[in-house]
């Protein structure tokens, strides 16, 4: 307490300040629960759209395979004319992780409209011919819902399947009950038996050869059609199967859409769709494109990466509560507490926005609503402009804006488009284009805008741009019709203004007189072309990246570093971090206060042994290391005989785990030593 000064010597009472009421504790679980609800809805919609795009990309090839099965069905031909097994070789590509989803679609289509007898074989389940036959028999009987024959492993043969097929399909007409039972199963006489070998290259050659020969022997009794899922080329079939087996096959090849094409469709049609509020920043978008389109070509991996991005965004960013559909924004804002609004106002982009703006009496919630709506509208507006720019500049030589729309979009995410070197090159190319080329490219830009008209509403500025482009197109067309007249009558001559300066010789004067005779002739087309180039540069100069917008953190996720730790980690670095700081992996309280170089008894046994092995040289004395391990586990407490045996067992198990991880290995130089396989402290 400060010393109280007074004229009189008296005693004064200093009352304490009034206690302020405690601030309400934020309901973190409730806030995260609301964000989880938005995350779940957004992810469900995104996943369904991606899978729908995948199904549409493979619709044509799957329909062709179904038509092949129906047209080449052995049941439609006489028994004596069944010579070869019809085989549909489906070229799937190297994206093995996506094949299961495509074959699920194919099996579903076959079961719904072609046949109920469909069997699917995987190489991992069919190591022998017996396993293949068993899988075929059980799948066909279970799919058809048959209860006439009990399926047993020791009786699963092709002859059993042939007898079952005859008993189910070939019925006597005088038995109404059997006819009714047959119709309930949906098995008809002309239904084929379809066997799908999904990963053809993974099957053993001997088992595959025997299976084909057996199917060929039973072709007169069973209408078998085979479908091979091939990841490489058609030559893989001929290289794996000997001539004795391949001569029994009538192969027709079907090619699915190249994986790069339908992945590009997923990027352009789904991930950039304005109805999906969650969006990717430049660094994350570039990383996902590099991994998916240039490394593994996997749609499954793309979905996993997108889900992790969305999870990180909604879990770590409190402002992601506003990452909802645009029409739900006002309702979400009304339900937000003051603390949640303060979290949004604390975003770095919003703080920069406040410093640049003049003081305003606008309420915070209303301002937030306006800014987030501006973000949504900016994305829609930019997509239309980028589609027009891509339509104008695609397949243009010496211009690297990109051969795909996603490349133009990545340029837009990174920096203002008008400031990029590629855009400057494009404007320079416009100034030297022919009139036919300009008309064609303006038409392509307008067509690109029309193709997006059904999906996106055209804002006022884009509509004005469209009107101006149409006007320029008409002007160029009018010049094309009047080219001879324009060249004869509309050429203008403008004398060049000369600076005489100081003429010191007759030769200089003669040179100046020659320049006087020269004129600069500008045709109407050149003047109009320069005017269009200036208009083009100005029209697309408003394309600013989302990172320049306030509150862009609400919708855009751009933490590529966290994503790389999950999907492209360095194994040695990750292993070292997990063993030196196990609390980051285990999330336990006992290891939280332990440093990376500190050895504590609360650490897992493997972590203790790893830290002890880092302190050793090239050769590690196991006895000395065990004594150190024992001292860490027991501390200053003496161990009983039973406890010491337990500690020894824990130590040797941890050493075995270190050897399994490749960190140590036995050595013949000393029997009680192991050799360290790492260097330094990692």
UniProtKB/TrEMBL annotation:
GO BP of this protein: DNA replication initiation
Keywords: DNA replication, DNA-binding, Nucleus, Phosphoprotein
Signal peptide interval: none
Pfam families, A to Z: ORC3_ins, ORC3_N, WHD_ORC
Family: Belongs to the ORC3 family.
Functional description taken from the UniProt entry: Component of the origin recognition complex (ORC) that binds origins of replication. DNA-binding is ATP-dependent. The specific DNA sequences that define origins of replication have not been identified yet. ORC is required to assemble the pre-replication complex necessary to initiate DNA replication. Binds histone H3 and H4 trimethylation marks H3K9me3, H3K27me3 and H4K20me3.
Subunit composition and interactions: Component of ORC, a complex composed of at least 6 subunits: ORC1, ORC2, ORC3, ORC4, ORC5 and ORC6. ORC is regulated in a cell-cycle dependent manner. It is sequentially assembled at the exit from anaphase of mitosis and disassembled as cells enter S phase.
Protein name, as recorded: Origin recognition complex subunit 3
Organism: Rhipicephalus appendiculatus
Taxonomic classification: Eukaryota, Metazoa, Ecdysozoa, Arthropoda, Chelicerata
């Amino acid at each position: 307490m400060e010393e109280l000064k007074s004229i009189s010597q008296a005693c004064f009472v200093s009352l304490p300040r009034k206690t302020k009421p405690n601030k309400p504790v934020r309901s973190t679980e409730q806030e995260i629960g609301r964000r989880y609800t938005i995350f779940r809805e957004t992810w469900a919609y995104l996943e369904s759209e991606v899978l729908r795009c995948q199904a549409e990309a493979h619709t044509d090839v799957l329909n062709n395979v179904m038509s092949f099965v129906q047209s080449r069905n052995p049941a439609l031909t006489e028994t004596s004319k069944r010579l070869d097994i019809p085989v549909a070789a489906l070229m799937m590509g190297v994206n093995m992780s996506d094949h299961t989803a495509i074959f699920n679609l194919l099996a579903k289509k076959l079961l719904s409209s072609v046949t109920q007898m469909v069997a699917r074989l995987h190489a991992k389940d069919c190591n022998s011919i017996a396993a293949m036959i068993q899988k075929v028999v059980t799948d066909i009987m279970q799919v058809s819902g048959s209860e006439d024959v009990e399926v047993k492993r020791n009786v699963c043969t092709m002859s059993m399947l042939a007898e079952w097929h005859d008993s189910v399909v070939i019925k006597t007409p005088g038995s109404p009950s059997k006819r009714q039972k047959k119709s309930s199963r949906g098995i008809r006489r002309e239904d084929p038996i379809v066997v799908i070998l999904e990963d053809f290259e993974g099957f053993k050659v001997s088992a595959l050869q025997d299976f084909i020969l057996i199917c060929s022997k039973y072709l007169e009794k069973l209408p078998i059609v085979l479908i091979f899922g091939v990841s490489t080329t058609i030559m893989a079939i001929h290289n794996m199967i000997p001539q004795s087996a391949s001569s029994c096959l009538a192969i027709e090849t079907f090619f699915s859409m190249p994986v790069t094409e339908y992945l590009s469709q997923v990027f352009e049609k789904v991930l950039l769709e304005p109805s999906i509020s969650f969006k990717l920043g430049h660094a994350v978008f570039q990383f996902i494109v590099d991994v998916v389109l240039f490394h593994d070509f996997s749609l499954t991996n793309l979905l996993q990466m997108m889900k992790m991005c969305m999870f990180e965004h909604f879990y770590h960013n409190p402002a992601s509560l506003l990452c909802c559909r645009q029409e739900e924004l006002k309702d979400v804002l009304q339900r937000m507490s003051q603390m949640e609004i303060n979290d949004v106002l604390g975003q770095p982009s919003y703080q920069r926005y406040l410093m640049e703006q003049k003081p305003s009496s606008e309420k915070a919630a209303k301002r937030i609503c306006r800014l987030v709506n501006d973000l949504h509208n900016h994305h829609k507006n930019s997509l239309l402009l980028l589609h027009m720019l891509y339509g104008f500049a695609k397949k243009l030589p010496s211009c690297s804006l990109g051969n795909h729309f996603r490349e133009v979009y990545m340029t837009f995410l990174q920096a203002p488009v008008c400031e990029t070197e590629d855009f400057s090159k494009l404007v320079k190319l416009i100034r030297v284009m022919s009139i036919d080329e300009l008309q064609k490219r303006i038409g392509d830009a307008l067509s690109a805008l029309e193709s997006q008209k059904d999906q996106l509403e055209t804002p006022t500025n884009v509509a004005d741009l469209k009107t101006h482009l149409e006007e320029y197109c008409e002007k160029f067309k009018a010049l094309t019709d009047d080219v001879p007249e324009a060249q004869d009558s509309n050429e203008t001559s403008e004398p060049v203004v000369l600076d005489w300066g100081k003429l010191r010789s007759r030769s200089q004067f003669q040179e100046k007189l020659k320049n006087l005779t020269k004129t600069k002739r500008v045709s109407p087309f050149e003047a109009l072309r320069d005017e269009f180039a200036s208009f083009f540069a100005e029209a697309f100069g408003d394309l600013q990246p989302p990172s320049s917008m306030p509150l862009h953190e609400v919708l855009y996720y751009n933490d590529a570093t966290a994503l790389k730790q999950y999907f492209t980690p360095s194994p040695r670095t990750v292993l070292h971090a997990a063993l030196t700081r196990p609390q980051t992996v285990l999330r336990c309280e006992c290891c939280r206060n332990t440093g990376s170089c500190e050895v504590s008894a609360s650490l897992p046994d493997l972590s203790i042994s790893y830290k002890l092995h880092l302190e050793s040289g090239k050769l590690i004395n196991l006895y000395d290391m065990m004594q150190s391990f024992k001292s860490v586990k027991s501390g200053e407490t003496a161990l009983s005989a039973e406890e010491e045996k337990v500690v020894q067992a824990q130590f040797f198990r941890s050493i075995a785990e270190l050897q399994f991880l490749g960190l140590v290995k036995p050595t013949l130089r000393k029997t009680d030593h192991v050799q360290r396989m790492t260097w330094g402290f990692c």
